[in-house]
Specification:
Elements: H1 2-18, H2 22-26, E1 36-37, E2 46-54, H3 59-70, E3 75-78, H4 80-85, H5 87-95, E4 99-102, H6 115-131, H7 150-158, E5 162-163, E6 167-168, H8 177-187, E7 193-197, H9 202-217, E8 221-223, H10 225-228
Parallel strand pairs: 1-5, 2-3, 2-7, 2-8, 3-4, 6-7
Amino acid sequence: MRKLVIRVSLVLVTLTVAGVGLRAFINSRIPLFGDSIHRVDTRERVVALTFDDGPHPRHTPRMLDLLDRHQVKATFFMMGRNVERHPDVVLQVLARGHEVGNHSYSHPRLVFMAPGRVRHEISRTDALLRSLGVTGDIHFSPPHGSKFVVLPYVLTQMGKLSVLSDVDVEEWKRPPAAVMVRSALEQVRPGSVMQFHDPLGEETLKAVDQVVTRLLAQGYRFERISELIKRRPNP
């Protein structure tokens, strides 16, 4: 842990000297350490479609119907407290062939938080997903995209992959579907990880429908995160 503290201190000094804002660094796609992905370097027209914050009793089943119509699979990163409330929806996601991941239990900002609390947020949700039959690796999508100091340390200790994205349409601003579609299509490229939020409702459903339609027409294929990461070069 002492080496970790020294390393973090050096990074902070470097950032200060360079004039880079700490907040900007925290929310960047550059982790200090640990295994993470925001895109895979490939020329093949493949992307991963991901959804955070669910499951939602109304909007998640509608998203599943949409994906079924397009015959594409996605990865749903779920909050533990929502898994507790809506286990039947989790089972629907699994039954339709999609992948399930961990998005913490209560969606806190996992920055400057005690390692034990961070681990509890993650392990509690893992246990809930396992109880519903989830097998294999359970990857992690950090709430708010935060990944500074403690979180990557805990994920490394737990042997977990941190899933970020390089296509983010900023749904938290509640833009109309047309704006999200334009933003997604401007950002996407082969190997991208696309981030949406299934509980956000009508405009997100419209946006995902149009984005998937356009990308399929351009020859893209959709893979689950576990499939996309297999395309990474061996270290």
